[in-house]
Amino acid sequence: MSVKTLTINDTPVAVEAGATILEAAKQAGITIPTLCHLEGVSDVGACRLCLVEIKGINKLLPACVTEVAEGMEVQTETAKLREYRKMTVELLFSEGNHVCSVCVANGACELQDMAVTVGMDHSRFSYRFPDRPIDISHPSFAIDHNRCILCTRCVRVCAEIEGAHVWDVANRGEKCYVISGLDQPWGEVNACTSCGKCVEACPTGAIFHKGETTGEKTSDPGLLDFLVTARKKQQWIR
Amino acid sequence: MSKTIVIDPITRIEGHAKISLFLDEQGEVSDARFHVVEYRGFEKFCEGRPFTEMAGITARICGICPVSHLLAAAKTGDKILAVQIPPAAVKLRRLMNLAQLTQSHALSFFHLSSPDFLLGWDSDPAKRNIFGLIAANPDLARAGIRLRQFGQTIIELLGARKIHAAWTVPGGVRSPLTPEGRAWIIERLPESFETINLALDLFKNLLDNFQTEVENFGKFPSLFMGLVSPTGEWEHYDGHLRFTDSEGNIVADHLSEDNYQDFIGESVENWSYLKFPYYKPLGYPEGMYRVGPLARINICSGFGTEAADRELQELRDRAGGVPTSSFYYHYARLVEILGCLERIARLMEDPDLLSPRVRAVGGVNNLNAIGVSEAPRGTLFHHYQVDDNGLIEKVNLIIATGNNNLAMNKTITQIAKHYIHGSEITEGMLNRVEAGIRCYDPCLSCSTHAAGQMPLHIQLVSFDGTILQEVYRD
Asked: Can you give the pTM of this predicted structure?
């Protein structure tokens, strides 16, 4: 097993080769903000919140999908990064229709928490108020595209853990949205096993248990990691 | 002439008001209009949302009486689910509504209206507010504030927050009362009774000096509408709808909210965003009716609780029968608080309040449903149409304040005709017109959170349309 050594925020870190900067930072006790990262599934670098600065590289790179290299010098908390992270969260809010006060996830929402973390008190960008649908055709669950930030955690959790691959991404740019099946109403997708992992994976109130009302959605962030690692760790009960 | 705005649909209100007064050739007031000039749009933007979210969304219409919308929305949701909710949930919802009636009425009386009674209609407007009241009568002001706190805290004990507690849900409520919560309510009840008795004594002593106001603040015949219990007693949550006339005769009884469109029409005027509901059989505008505390005490046989019934009888004796002056809204409000406190005390003995069985679950079993509740300001209707999955297709809301729209316009006309002659508007007159509206405790005053400082725009318009004088108060 080869080891790579690098510095993160001037702290020396030694990690297994092939690890990502995000994993290295976690080992070193350094927190890098993320939204699309989910323990137990692959990373895609969709949310851009984990961007870091690396000496000698001219652009910012996402920590979740960038492998460590020998002698790398990483900075995670520069003024530039803080400003970009705040701007990213502002853009997420202005892109969709996020109304915390009446949202099922109010109080248990990673986007809401992230806004607090990055110090966002308002959005400097005009709200787009897109006209997006809600699909509550599934007997147990519902998806409100207004609250979707396209992190694709649902897509990955369904494909990689449940193995059903109900979710996918359609279109590009402002028309981009997650689809169930072949862009069918969720309730008509036979592949769905109604396991509810996408509800657990969703960082916002976009996917929720049908019938949940304002602030009723609860968050159990460790559940999916537990499911993935239970066999490896021989730990069947939390 | 008055400003004309046409927007379809005409719907919700909150905040600012404008009044136009129209003069004839002799300089006498011929008409007055109460304009609500804000547009909320809830009926439109709720379209497409799941019906389960409606309580949370519509509660945001108002910060003073969100509970009314929580109840009306949840009751409409119960009907979409087609479930009978657990008895404990009914009692808990009732408790929250009683608490809300108490806190809202306390706010109306102590914070907003009593400065007029206690400091004088023509007193310095800079002091004619709750702060002036605190300076003049600190004990009374404190007692009033604590009475409101009593109601607000019960709401918080049930729903985890005082305002916009999204605690009622289709099928019931989220959680029961805790033993600690019940203990707190029981402990604070005696003080609340003491305060309301003090306020009643105070108001009754003042009433003799207010005969001009009683005669001119909206004294006219009209219908009264509200909920009554199956036995005809005072009601705030369930029961059936009843209309009575100014002589106390029952005009229509055992009406169901499900058929509200058969007996309530909604007219619109191009000078106000507030709809003009009317009693359909009499047509528009003859079908004017009033709702709220005065209507509720006029349509019922009694409260069914000892102290409130005694006070109700005294109110009726003082009015010489059915009170028809809107000035009596204040009096009715105080009697209602007493009735609410007695009912809260009675509920405290009910073990069901602590029952964990508070929520029925169901699917979408009705596509069209109508819910009703008695808000502090009057009868509130929610009407939803949903698709097979429960997404809202159409919403119609009849807000309590809206029901009183015709009566409010008539009230300010009556006040203006009595107090205004010639071309000069004095501050005292402005305040009386404002107080005429305040009798009804409309949601407008809720949003401004100011005693004696409701934003007003008064125009004095001559017969040829010339604006003689304009007075603004921001």
From this structure: 0.88
